[in-house]
Amino acid sequence: MVDVAIIGCGVVGAAAAMQLARRRCSVLVLEAENDVAMGTTKANSAILHAGYDPEPGTLMAKLNLRGSLLAAELCEQLDVPRRQCGSMVLAFSEEEREHLRVLLERGQKNGVPGLHIVSGEEARQMEPALSPEVRGALVAPTAAIVSPWELALAMAENAVQNGAQLLLETPVTGLSPVAGGWRLDTPRGSYTARFVLNAAGVNADQIHNLAAAPTFTICPNRGEYYLLDKSEGDMVGHVIFQCPTKAGKGVLVAPTVHGNLIVGPNAEGLQTPSTATTAAGLAFVAAAARKSVTGLQLGASIRNFAGVRANTDRDDFVIEWAAPGLLDLGGMKSPGLTAAAAVGEYALELLERAGLSAPAKQSPVTTRRRVRFARLSAAEKAELVREDARYGRIVCRCETVTEGEIVAACHSPIPPRSIDGVKRRVGAGMGRCQGGFCGPRVLEILCRERGLSPLEVPQDQAGSYLLAAQTKQEGSER
Predict the structure, then answer these.
(1) Domain limits of the chain?
(2) Catalytic site residue 411?
(3) Is the predicted pLDDT of residue 352 greater than 70, yes or no?
(4) Which of 476 and 20 is assigned the larger pLDDT?
(5) Does the pLDDT value for residue 104 go beyond 80?
(6) Whole-angstrom Cα distance, residue 138 to residue 280?
(7) Residues 6+ apart with CB under 8 A from 459
(8) Model pLDDT for residues 46-103, shown as the tens digit of each residue
(9) Burial of 53 (0-12, 13-18, 19+ CB in 10 A)
(10) Residue among 93, 145, 364 at smallest CA distance from 252
(11) 14, 175, 240, 331: which is deepest, by most CB within 10 A?
């Protein structure tokens, strides 16, 4: 029996696992997919929110601000791309200008530093690409952008390095109380734990309902995006929001830490989660975004994608005991990414209050570094290539990713199982051609380093195979 089992390894589950693994307790993480960060974590706006939006007194407000501070520290410690670029909420009417004042007051109550309102003219001086219709803007200097899947992966790797056990492709199908804790049933067998954290994202209500009477319902909400080429990455320097509504924070235009421009999302309620993109949804995003930035070149889009928010029938995060020893970490809609590290910290606090003995380890692993060849100086590149010639072989030309980086990822604490798993770790395939050039070479390296057959490697999720059968033997005639 382990001390704590965590169901789900998105950014929230990874944060909780990291916090616990740095303590003297045993941790088991059960993830249904073939990689970490496969749900909302890998498909969102990548924003670390300043904290002016949540209602004062809510868990969202408390954990947003704390999470933003922790995220800055963790990104530094774990070598995760993050940039504090600030954000602007635009107003296009007097009514919306009044709402900016509401957000300002709310943010000040939440303790957000540096918030201030500027005129439309001042906003355009800060961001010349803004529409001439902008009448004012709320500026939040502490807002930042991050690589969300890299943050989750870094925290999960840190948990594994500190002793946590991660089981991928292990969905929880049953949850029942046993003496001293809980039994978790999966297709790979059953496991027992004193405490269970339910961090199952859009499936959190289903996991809850395996063990307790329903108390909340996930209401999946799809958001669709454009990802623009790096040629458009400098169009704006801040995260550009429109005034929020009940549907969410509206369509945004923002830079990414990788140098692209992200545009979206819409907000569409669904009966069942779906990450399909739609012509209607993308047309809505395009029209709404051009209200903020009229000169958007959406023809420079290199990818469209959609994510599903784990909205619930509540207006706050669901962090509470579903039953003795079973803690829900549900409803992680925006600002869930921002709050994740603080949610992990809060979960540890609640577990200790409930009787978990988890003193800090004497010397846990707290840092992580990886080679990003494209960001090295010429001298650093030359030295690295002298040490390992594989860093001199460029595999992904769009992003300047080397064979050495891919090999390192294949031998990391949580090695990739798919082509897109490599992409999330080192960026191969994230550029203009979206893996059209480097994909076969990535497949070859992944198979060689992991001892796999090309027939076993999916594009992304389990079952998304690229190859069906071998049609020609080596050396055979055409």
Answers:
(1) 1-83+145-218+311-369, 87-141+219-309, 373-456
(2) no
(3) yes
(4) 20
(5) yes
(6) 30
(7) 418, 419, 420, 465, 466
(8) 999 999 999 999 999 999 999 999 999 999 999 999 999 999 999 999 999 999 999 9
(9) buried
(10) 145
(11) 14
What does the block give as tokens for 32?
Answer: 């249904």
pLDDT over 90 (residue 320): yes
Among candidate residues 49, 208, 238, 258, the one labeled active-site is: 49
Give me the mean pLDDT over the 418-425 stretch: 98
Judged on CB neighbours under 10 Å (0-12, 13-18, 19+), 57 is exposed
| CA 294 – CA 304 distance, rounded (Å) | 20
> So what's the pLDDT on residue 250?
79
Q: What is the CATH number of domain 87-141+219-309?
A: 3.30.9.10
What CATH number should be reported for the domain whose range is 1-83+145-218+311-369?
3.50.50.60
Residue 195's DSSP bridge partners are: 4
Distance between CA atoms of residues 210 and 207, nearest Å? 5
